[in-house]
Amino acid sequence: MTKNKKTLIIGATTKPEKAAFKAIEMLVAKGHSVLALGQNTGEVGGIKINTKAIPVKNIDTISLYINPARQRDYYNYIVEVKPKRVLFNPGTENPEFYQLLELNNIKFEAACTLVLLTLNKY
What is the pLDDT of residues 37-51, one digit of tens each? Predict the structure, then answer.
């Protein structure tokens, strides 16, 4: 198993049919620490969904499940968190944000969290 990569999911949801829900469950099942941020409170796989951006430290990965227009509200927060990388899941790709991340020396990848986990490439 890969080492524990503390992950913040932005766009978390309690809807089981959504990729963000499945990602939280799979991350937990594979032994990763998970924090979740979403529009509505709830719980997935024992992980509480916060509705406000909270101060966090030592984040390895931020996995985005929100569209580029909604990402703008999180630009400063994500840069302040200074994760090792940001994953842009399908439908969240954002060249404008890529530039900001590059300026702040934060790695990013347009990739599916679920696929990376399934292939043990997370």
Answer: 999 999 999 999 999
